[in-house]
Amino acid sequence: MSKFDLTNAGFGTRSIHAGQEPDKLHGALATPIYQTSTFCFETVEQGSAIFSGEIPGYAYSRGGNPTVNALEEKIAALECGEACIATSSGMGAVGGVVLGTLATGDHAICGKCVYGCTDVVFRQTLAKLGIEVTYVDTNDLKAVEAAIKENTKLIYFETLTNPNMELTDIAAISKIAHEHGAIVAVDNTFTPPPQVYPLKEGADLVLHSCTKYINGHGDVIAGAIVGRAELIGPIKKNVTSKICGTTPSPFNSYLILRGLQTMELRMARHCENGLAVAKYLESVPYVKKVYYPGLESHPQHEVAKRMMHGNYGGIMSFELKEEVNGMDGFTACKKVVNALKLASIAVSLGDPETLIQHPASMTHANMSPEARAEAGIKDDLIRLSVGLENVEDIIADFEQAFAVL
Fold it and tell me: Which keywords accompany this UniProt record (predicted)?
């Protein structure tokens, strides 16, 4: 059977076929799980040639594995990148990017609002390595350019900030960065293809917590870094497979390969449900503000229309009014969240189930109160990941929860 040319194929076709073909040994349709730590060689000479890179092959699963490789090829194809590194967690991807692009004496710019564990890396870990970090609002292009120094090597931000849902114009930031010789790395976890394509917008590296939408089933911890082969190669060779040792297991890679085959269908439902729930929440009298790029009230809605092409995702945050029936906003938020019956209180996102959490005490609890205030993460802010349930049931769950106020 001749291989179908995926070069101009649609997203759904690539999500099913990229990186995967029938097993050459037995013809298995699903990619086999090569659950092995090491690989055998026919001769010493063959082993030496594989280790040196003279010929293709596998030697040890930390450096490469056929199941993991299939996943890397698929994610690279979906992000329209040349190469991909799969990692054992989203933070493994963050570590790979910063250690692969920065060295002692370098300077990095980081978006002022990022995932709490990422914030710890930039505020605490990089300082121990002699790397200076400046935090900026990436929606303020003048502030970004003003923060650039002669030794600035990296500008890092999230496409859609966690948990404030602020969208950054990747193309504008990339233009500024490249004029000064800096690399742009974008965490695209909240807005994976087919929502946003950071590499097409000009970014050099894009990273994911594959735990979320890319796997989509809430049963895997993993990450990925995608970009040009010249950038990805050294990170994989020297960082993720060496100092970090964050290669994912073959079994987890298999689970993500399975999950990716339905990604286009899943994302369409997440986007459809997300917009409907956001509009509902905006109509609730107790709600002060809803942060969702698909709403016309969102500050970057025009940027969202250009970058997201109507696919606004299933992630949003909202605040209740400062005083609700004699309660402060945070007390009212806790009361509503605790009253939900269909939605689960959990810190992940992108699962089939609707998930809700309180960033200040959960995902961003490692940040100091001052850092959270600087990032605009309020104590009464609630983050919601809208799942794949029937949207009428999700809304009905919130209606009965708001009724307790």
Answer: Pyridoxal phosphate, Transferase
Q: What distance, in Å, lies between the first and last C-alpha atoms of the chain?
A: 63
User: Residue ranges per domain, the chain?
Assistant: 11-260, 263-402
118-125: long-range pairs with CB below 8 Å, 24+: 118/91, 118/94, 118/187, 119/364, 119/366, 119/367, 119/371, 119/375, 120/366, 120/367, 121/91, 121/94, 121/95, 122/98, 122/156, 123/371
CA dihedral over 389, 391, 393, 398, signed as positive or negative: positive
CB 158, CB 189: distance < 8 Å: yes
CATH number assigned to the domain covering 11-260: 3.40.640.10
Contact 260, 214 (CB under 8 A): yes
Most confident of 2-11, 17-26, 145-154, 355-364: 145-154
Q: What is residue 2's predicted lDDT score, i.e. its pLDDT? A: 53
What pLDDT was estimated at residue 1? 46
Catalytic residues: 62, 115, 187, 212
For the domain bounded by 263-402, which CATH number is listed? 3.90.1150.10
Asked if residue 28 has pLDDT above 80, the reply is: yes
Amino acid at 239: V
**Encoded amino acid at 370, one letter:** E
Distance CA 88, CA 391 (A): 33
Secondary structure class of 185 (helix, strand, coil): strand
pLDDT in tens, 165-190: 999 999 999 999 999 999 999 999 99
∠ CA 355-291-380 to the nearest 5 degrees? Answer: 70
Q: Give yes or no for a contact between 93 and 225, defined as CB atoms under 8 angstroms apart.
A: yes
CB distance 145 to 176 below 8 Å:
yes
